[in-house]
Design a protein that fits this description.
alpha+beta; about 200 residues; seven-stranded mixed sheet; Glutaredoxin
């Protein structure tokens, strides 16, 4: 996986299933973000059980992303027709039902290849990228197929990043919303660390 943190995320166009169920033949990633932060969420395949739980969990927390002006886009190497079938039916029929974010089709594998997450020219790893409002990657991760991701960690990171942008503070391990962070006046964190050790 190529390190993309600190670089502008590559734009892409792709056939995409939109939240209302329609097909956008030439979905433009940068155009969709339109100056908002973004979560680009690669998953391995439609109709996979772990992938289904990830997208359902992501959809359940979508309002929390929206409150933070973060737009979510999912991508897999399945065709847009496969995506369409997967979101048209209910979970009782073995599919995931309607989602509130777009799912792009990377059937040509070029998006996954550009982001360095393509495996055996077949499918994407479980990979995630968080972009700031200027389209710069601030977070990336990739993990094994056998383990689903923790969506709450993305929200925690976004809160921490936005706190840093607004205050200039840097955020310690495990920082949570409305918690104290490390201020610029404590350059070497000597005061903060003495307190932090007591909290662990």
């Amino acid at each position: 996986m190529t390190n993309l943190v600190g670089q502008h995320a590559a734009n892409f166009t792709a056939p995409t299933i939109m939240p209302d169920g329609s097909i956008e033949a030439v979905f433009d990633f940068n155009g969709y973000l339109a100056g908002n932060m973004g979560l680009l969420f690669f998953y391995s395949m439609d109709h996979g059980m772990v992938c289904a739980t990830e997208l359902i969990a992501l959809n359940k927390r979508l309002e929390q992303f929206q409150e933070r002006n973060v737009k979510v886009v999912a991508v897999s190497t399945d065709s847009f027709l496969s995506h369409q079938v997967w979101v048209q039916n209910s979970t009782k029929e073995g599919t995931i039902g309607k989602l509130g974010f777009p799912i792009a089709s990377d059937a040509k594998r070029d998006i996954s290849e550009t982001y360095g997450v393509l495996v055996n020219n077949a499918m994407s790893m479980r990979a995630s990228f968080i972009l700031d409002a200027e389209g710069v990657v601030r977070y990336q991760s990739m993990q094994d197929f056998a383990v689903g991701r923790n969506i709450d960690e993305y929200i925690r990171f976004i809160d921490a990043w936005q706190h840093h942008i607004h205050t200039g503070d840097v955020c310690q391990a495990g920082w949570k919303h409305n918690s104290p962070a490390i201020g610029a006046e404590d350059q070497y964190a000597s005061n903060f660390l003495s307190q932090y050790r007591e909290l662990l």
